[in-house]
Model the fold of this input.
Amino acid sequence: MTTQLNDSGVTFADGTIQPSAAQPQLISITGTVASNALTITLAACSLAFRSATLTSGTPSYVATTDLTLTVPSGATLGTVNAVQSRIVVLALNNAGTMELAVVNIAGGNDLSETGVISTTAMSAASDSNNVIYSTTARTNVAYRVVGYVESTQATAGTWATAPSTVQGNGGQALAAMSSLGYGQTWQNVTGSRALGTTYYNTTGKPILVSATPQATTNGTSNLVVNGIEASRSVPAANLGIAVTSIVPPGGSYVVDNNQAGKSLLVWAELR
Done:
């Protein structure tokens, strides 16, 4: 065997690999569905990972051949029927061996690549949006965000519809694209919103919701995000006071009040 230069780095005659320091701006991933399962593949590459020791700033370089992770039928990852989800794909550094993991962005996990993470073994019962899943459970490993897969499944956990978007990432692309206000505008959505109805943020970024109910009697209006009351107002009869909150990616939100003769004056979202 001769020394070879490829996408993973330099492969020497003895089979050892020196990862390349220069990485493509986008890492190649694929997402496919078959037999009601979702299969995610990361193409051969080499990545720099932070140290698993948080007091060390020395990176480790790891090369890999193609990697595959399967989300089995029945595993919802915390997704919701008929609502678009964004599943973030992570590369783990397991003592010098690269592995894949996935997590629903709706869970609100810190994916800034500035710490270490622990994962839970993937199974048909992998149903939490804030748990990071990998084929084998790992503890306190460094990771990189390598992309995401967006899809809408009629029944959560039955991966039958092909992804609508498969996006490879490089560096902090996910964090930049997911920031509030980045590429967003205020939109009046009054005509498509109703009090007491639950909606979901499927944009992949945080959004800002501002809604103003009014009623013919005194009472309380509130905005509930992911089951938590995030904003409350106490308007007098025939007056409206807005309730406003940020809704994280994948989060649920509902606006309502307890007043008689209630109606919606205006509902706007920065999205």
Remarks:
- The chain has one helix and 22 strands.
- The chain has two domains: 4-177, 186-270.
